């Protein structure tokens, strides 16, 4: 399982364009991809701040999402000011039924898209996650 929280700041005045892109992204993701557990966008309290909760069956499924035609096809540079992806791990018994985030190795025959995505979005597991059950 791979779960992330994206912290997203958009450029002022691009709210309508951003939300239209996100609606299309959710529609395309949920109708064309498999292995997607959660894909939700939320507005934050601060102006132009959004969050996305993404959860996939595994790291490779997340990487396929990132490299998908619908993900690569939008002009994110026109609307994004900053984005930070944070891998998160559900608290046992309080994580909405999601399994733990784990970093499984890519298969030996992984294609170029998967290898590129791993370079761009390396999955990191903080050491302190392993200190609690």
From TrEMBL:
InterPro entries documented for this protein: ABM_dom, Dimeric_a/b-barrel
Chain segments annotated as transmembrane: none
Domain of life: Bacteria
Pfam families: ABM (PF03992)
Residue ranges of domain ABM in the record: 1-72
Identification of the protein by name: ABM domain-containing protein
Provenance organism: Novosphingobium fuchskuhlense
